[in-house]
TrEMBL record:
Residues 36-55 bind DNA. SUPFAM superfamilies: Homeodomain-like, Tetracyclin repressor-like, C-terminal domain. Signal peptide: none annotated. GO terms for molecular function: DNA-binding transcription factor activity; transcription cis-regulatory region binding. Gene3D superfamilies: Homeodomain-like, Tetracycline Repressor, domain 2. Residues 13-73 form the HTH tetR-type domain. It comes from Leucobacter weissii. Keywords: DNA-binding, Repressor, Transcription, Transcription regulation. This is TetR family transcriptional regulator. It comes from the Bacteria.
């Protein structure tokens, strides 16, 4: 039985996540359109009917890959200590994104490569969550500009610069190389913040 009182049982949740992760691997290896539900079932080691038990259509799996990525980022930002300095907050954003590229590399690549394959209704939901996440970062940057901690003249451009540096890393960052995800994140952050951070006042 997959559901208990309207919610997934622990075993059901584990099987559902296994389907999502297997699909992410296959989408990354062969492409979204070239991957069938039967291939996903084979990778998981279950019947095709089991996949359909959790997901009516393949686009729903693609949406879950997107949703898990953005939900994890949202949770990390929303649960972060509000007393963090702006510098540490922004550093943590870099670390969050690079950590997911390390721990869920297939999911992250699929997130960026196949976003436009989402049906319009599911894409609208994904966009709303992405916008919510970006607004949280932008709000902190705007506050930093107002307080003089950042010298950016255009906070929105500063926010997009951050996302561009982090998000594009999926094209070249490969887990397990000589630098850890945290080291890569800190190097990117240093380049970003050293350019935007206001110099301490003399005297």
């Amino acid at each position: 039985m997959a559901r208990l009182d309207g919610a997934l049982t622990p075993g059901g949740l584990q099987r559902r996540n296994a389907i999502i992760n297997a699909a992410a691997q296959l989408f990354n290896e062969h492409g979204y359109h070239n991957t069938s539900t039967a291939q996903i079932a084979e990778r998981v080691g279950c019947a095709k009917a089991t996949v359909y038990h959790y997901f009516k259509k393949k686009p729903e799996i693609l949406f879950e890959i997107h949703d898990q990525w953005i939900e994890e980022l949202l949770t990390r930002v929303e649960e972060r200590d509000p007393g963090l300095s702006l510098e540490e907050f922004l550093r943590s954003v870099f670390r969050d994104i690079l950590h997911l590229m390390e721990s869920k590399s297939d999911n992250v690549r699929v997130f960026f490569e196949y976003y436009h394959e989402l049906p319009s209704d599911l894409r609208a939901t994904a966009v709303a969550k992405r916008d919510r996440y970006e607004a949280l970062i932008l709000n902190r940057i705007e506050h930093g500009v107002r307080t003089g901690e950042l010298k950016a003249r255009q906070p929105r451009i500063a926010a997009f610069a951050l996302f561009g540096m982090c998000n594009w890393a999926y094209q070249w960052y490969r887990p397990g190389r000589e630098l850890s995800d945290e080291q890569v994140a800190d190097e990117l952050f240093s380049i970003y913040f050293d350019g935007l951070g206001a110099a301490p006042s003399a005297g």
